[in-house]
Fold this protein.
Amino acid sequence: MRRRRDTETPAEPLVITEKVKGAMRLAAISPEAKRAGLLPGLTLADARARIPDLWVEEMDPHADAALLDRIADDCDRFTPVIVIDAPEGLLLDITGCDHLFGSEAQLRTLFNARLRRAGIHVRAVIASAPDAARALARYGRTAIVPPGEDAAAVRPLPIAALGLADDARLSISRAGLKTIGAIADRPSTAFAARFGEKMTLRLRRVLGEADPPLDPRRPVPMLWVERRFPEPIGRAEDIEAVLGELSDKASNRLGEQREGGRVFEASFFRADGAVRRIAVETGRPIRNTRILLRLFREKLDALADPVDPGFGFDMIRLSLPVTEPLDTIQPGLDGHAIEADEVADLADRLSTRFGTANVLRFLPEDTHDPNRAAKAVPASFNPLTSPVWPTPEEEEPPLRPVQIFDPPQLVDASAQVPDGPPLHFNWRRRKHVVVHAEGPERIAPEWWRAPDASERDYYRVEDIEGRRFWLFRSGAYGSKAHPRWYVHGLFA
């Protein structure tokens, strides 16, 4: 509409069409088209018969969903709990948020004014029950429902407000029941027997007698603090100062709860409705403002697309989606606790700059399979239980090499049968004569992962030149398949 108004050609009535059962029908119409007598659901042929000059556009569900998502991002300034009610609705849980705007009426006024300034027609209703608010927004005229009066407010609404299928709605209307109140006055057992429990559950939810489960579009943070500005800000030093102030507030609240944050998300709300979010993760819970600000600086410096303030930010929010218990670190006499904290701080900085997928560490796995004895995880990953690496006995050689070959390398070996160690083997065009050997250590395969794998007999061997190897024999002598020897690792 804005694009056509910029031209000198007068705008024709706009209609949006979609194909329904092979016919093009009007899905949405402009106010001009409505005043001309058109209605949604009318076929395009009938609409052109009434008004030959129409501006026709096809429905674009992906663009509609993207616009609704953008609107939902901007609505985060009112509450972090937002549910997408496709195709044209949003459900905002403003419990505990109305005092930030003065009252529910003032919040609704600000909400309507903001969306209308963006050229969006909006009908907002505040009610205790989510389904009651949805029904009143689409079919009623109420603005704010007093607490406890949801059932009385929705009784005059048509049965279409229940959102039933067309056949169920037609059957109920043919019985002479035109409003929600008429259905509510009759026993629910008859409706449940005819239309199922889902229909009666919808009725109870619209009346406010049952609470529907809400599925917010974004996880609800455990804690958040925010700062609103009468005049938008855009200078980098002002933004950093506000982040420091919000970090102090969040740290104080975390300290009261004896918790620390694992994930911190800064949301920057631009005056034009765009929202930019920057998140940092840590390998252990923290509540140190200095460390947090340094991580945000690292993240901002590493961004390929810098945060553009545009006309300025009118609100900044710091959210903590993930928190964990955190007590004061008690440094030991050896200082290892402080060293471990410094190493974790370094890992957080590297992960923030280069990405969590590029900074890894190893964790032991509870398995006897050498190929899966350790796994690489992001350095910021913090398991629920602290795994313990096996500790070798004092003055004993290691049982496993530090690094193994993946896959194991095939060698040509000669050995005593049936279970003797290799006498010599050829590997990488060199012959190695074995002078010392320990084993075998038999490792059975994990049958639930590789049911056809053979047992392995592992040996630690040393050749005549002092080199030490970790070899295994796959299969057994005397079986149908001749056993094969592999080098799986090297000892330092």
Observations:
- The mean pLDDT is 87.
- Residues 236-257 form the longest helix (22 residues).
